[in-house]
Please model this.
Amino acid sequence: MRKMDLNNIRVATSETARDINRRVVLNLIRTHQPISRADLARCSGLQRSTVSAITEQLIEERWVREGAIGHLPRGRKPTFLHLNTDRAAVIGINLRPGRTDLALADLSGRFLAQQSISTGEHPKVFINELINHLRTLIKANPQIDYEGIGISVPGRVDPKTQRLIFAPNLNWGEVDLKTPLERATGLTVEMENAATACALTELWFGQQAEGARNFATVTVSEGIGVGMIVNGERVYGNSGLAGEFGHISIQDAGPQCRCGNLGCWEVFASNNAAIDHYMQVSVNGRSGKASTRGQIAAPSFEDLLRLVEQGNLKALETVERMARYLGQGLAMVIMSIAPDIILLVGEVTTAWSHIEPIMWQEINKRCRIPLKTKIVSSDHTTQPRLRGAVALILQKHFGLP
Ligand SMILES: [Zn+2]
Model:
């Protein structure tokens, strides 16, 4: 018989049950709107009277509004319910080295306004600038009730201290973003690793991982981030550092990584690694020489992808090399958590037809046990990192879908 730890069990109070039912109903309205009360009862399995009591409260609190009246051949005509998208908005921030995007989104996660600012090298200066932009944004829309600010960050957040830790590509060290932003705006600030935020985006707005209890998102940008959902839960591990596959060394004598290690996965498979490699083969005519970035202008990663489209052989060789290294690291992710799905996020997915077969070749070389993981690409034009930042705030009211 398995022993239960009775000290660590919380009894479900009627309040807890009410809260769960409320989230279930609110989520069903979000995903099925417009929906009638009768259909809500059918979908949720809750009693009609419970659904009515919850929806009355949600209407009173202005989360939900009544819309059109439906037509039935007989009986009472149903009134359809919608989310009240006028009620409130959320601010989402996608913090990346170089550029930070800010967005105002409604309760459905639809962007109402967007702007970008450059990400400064000094955290204090950047935070002050960010505060100025947030204050201007909030002042410009005084009619809106703000539910909070969600931030996706290129690093890990300590769940206890809520400080940004381990963000080698920002080169900031440990930073407290939450306290100064909350103090300046009076709003709640929630932070999450960008890859994990993309996992939230998929749970909230996507269809590709529908029904998957185990999946990973891999963000390929300046570095490589991995967010993991295992048994339906986000995985944090010790100090929030779980999922740092990008900083596992895959070559002992590889190039130096910003984390201090040699030969990390991301120094071979990130966008920055590809740009460095392209510069080496373009300038020196062959790989293996020291980086020549700086002597001639390095292309952006988007430029590099355009060159691939134009049939540039050096660019194509660079992206194929990147795909091989992506496959090497993805094999580690697959063997670690045996996910149903891996969602790849980043500009590189626009070259999917080039990279997909190469990635699978590498994975199949390394994973000799029959795993049924699917790898799919996320449309980076839908801005999954930014949408995940919005979902961070939405989930406080709606719970995880
Ligand atoms: Zn590293």
Remarks:
- DSSP finds twelve helices and 14 strands in the chain.
- Confidence is low (pLDDT under 50) at residues 286-292.
- The domain at 88-201+384-398 is CATH 3.30.420.40 (Nucleotidyltransferase; domain 5).
- Residues 251 and 263 are 5 Å apart (CA to CA).
